[in-house]
UniProtKB/TrEMBL annotation, chain A:
The keyword Oxidoreductase applies. Keywords: Oxidoreductase. The lineage of its organism: Bacteria, Pseudomonadati, Pseudomonadota, Alphaproteobacteria, Hyphomicrobiales. Its EC number is 1.5.3.1. Gene3D superfamilies: Probable tRNA modification gtpase trme, domain 1. It is an enzyme of class 1 (oxidoreductase). It holds the Pfam family GCV_T. This is Sarcosine oxidase subunit gamma. It comes from Rhizobium herbae. Residues 92-185 form the GCVT N-terminal domain. InterPro entries: GCVT_N, TrmE/GcvT-like. GO terms for molecular function: sarcosine oxidase activity.
UniProtKB/TrEMBL annotation, chain B:
Signal peptide: none annotated. It comes from Rhizobium herbae. Pfam families: SoxD. InterPro entries: SoxD (IPR006279), SoxD_sf (IPR038561). Its EC number is 1.5.3.1. It comes from the Bacteria. It is an enzyme of class 1 (oxidoreductase). Keywords: Oxidoreductase. Gene3D superfamilies: Folate-binding superfamily. This is Sarcosine oxidase subunit delta.
Length: 190, 90
């Protein structure tokens, strides 16, 4: 029995938005708070290999929905909110070879794009972000400054960053700071 | 201190992403091994000069335990492997 409703407030609802930094327009950075749809952590059971095709079904076939970050561990993300019934429907597809932990409430996605995006992110992480080493769809769990984050390339000049909810606004402010030399447009649409 | 660790799952990463546990060569004594064996296991460590195998945890990456073989004098890294037995990784 719930005595009161818990309103969902997006983590970046009150984050800084607008245009910051250099007025030059050539290679501005776009920063976007992405919809807080679903973030599912999928954990393979011990000794289960070759789960990739199965995990792709959990992602519903959407490109870049499935993000492998460790042996037997994936994040599956999407813009649509999922009900507990939707999630148990997805868990049934795994038939015991892996389990799903719903992290939708706990992790937030930030989109960052622009021709200079690699230079911006390289200020925070030591991962080689060059297209040849980090192609579209590739994912890496790493540190951006002191904040742990999952970095995924979603386009030629675009990345998505998955970060713990409590660190999201702090990382948001740091990404703006890192982008100032190119100019940055930050949008929070919720 | 070695600065770039070639994680077998993530590729080369800076040492800031890792947590070091220590000597990978010591084995846990049996529960009835006696006070001396347990004292040695818990407290006593060699401080080798040269090649040394250690357990490193990739805390800010794949979160796997690794065995890093490195040189404590030259900071060279000789080998990095997952700490689990082959085939035990999901």
């Amino acid at each position: 029995m719930v005595d009161f409703t818990l309103p969902h407030r997006p983590a970046l609802a009150d984050a800084k938005s607008g245009s910051f930094g250099a007025p030059a327009t050539g290679n501005r950075i776009m920063l976007a708070a992405l919809p807080e749809g679903h973030v599912l952590q999928v954990l393979g059971s011990k000794g289960s290999a070759g789960l990739e095709d199965l995990i792709r079904q959990i992602g519903g076939g959407n490109p870049n929905a499935v993000r492998a970050y460790s042996p037997g561990q994936w994040f599956v993300v999407g813009d649509a909110a999922l009900s507990p019934a939707d999630i148990s429907g997805k868990a049934a597809l795994l038939s015991g070879k892996a389990s799903i932990a719903d992290q939708s409430h706990g992790r937030v996605r930030i989109g960052i794009s622009g021709t200079a995006v690699e230079t911006v992110l390289a200020k925070g992480t030591a991962v080689d972000l060059h297209r040849a080493k980090f192609p579209v769809g590739h994912t890496a769990m790493t540190l951006i400054g002191h904040i742990s984050a999952l970095v995924t390339r979603t386009g030629e000049n675009g990345f998505e960053i998955l970060v713990l909810r409590g660190f999201a606004e702090s990382l948001w402010d740091e990404l703006i700071q890192m982008s100032l030399e190119f100019g940055v447009d930050a949008t929070v649409n919720h | 201190m070695a600065s770039l660790i070639a994680c077998p799952h993530c590729g080369p990463r800076p040492k800031e992403e890792f947590t070091i546990r220590g000597d990978a060569g010591i084995t846990r004594p049996t529960p009835d091994a006696g006070e001396d064996a347990w004292y040695a296991y818990v407290y006593l460590r060699d401080n080798p000069r040269g090649r040394h195998k250690e357990h490193w945890h990739h805390t800010s990456g794949c979160r796997r335990w690794l065995v890093v073989e490195r040189d404590t004098m030259t900071h060279a890294i000789y080998a990095v492997s997952d700490a689990s037995a082959p085939g035990e990784t999901a």
